[in-house]
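BUG: 3D viewer hangs when loading the predicted structure for this chain

Environment: internal workstation, default settings.
Expected: structure renders.
Actual: progress bar stalls at 90%.

Input used:
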Amino acid sequence: MVEHWTFNPLVLGSIPNTPRLFLPFIFCIHMEHYLILSTILFFIGLFGIVLNRKNILIVLMSIELMLLAINLNFVIFSNSIDDIIGQIFALLVLTVAAAESAIGLAILVIYYRLRGNILIEQSHLMRG
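Structure tokens produced before the viewer hung:
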């Protein structure tokens, strides 16, 4: 009899002549892990805004990181209650964030061409 086998990295016994040991506890990621990751991402973005107030580009990237952490929360809770509204709202927030970053970067490019730097201290000169 020919033994057919396929390699599955989650099952150590998928290769012939090896003990079959299923390890679901190593690869099990619960909701708490995602929430901790989201909290860490949010606070990295918050610290980027608070600690670096000189460069507008880093402030914009920190805002984007905070929005992505919030989107991760929407998707986590949407998945946990089996509702798609949170995922739709996350797509809406991603769309608004993409538009915000595109407009913000366009303003920064024009500001850099006019002034030669993108420091926040001199942004008060930007009047309409």
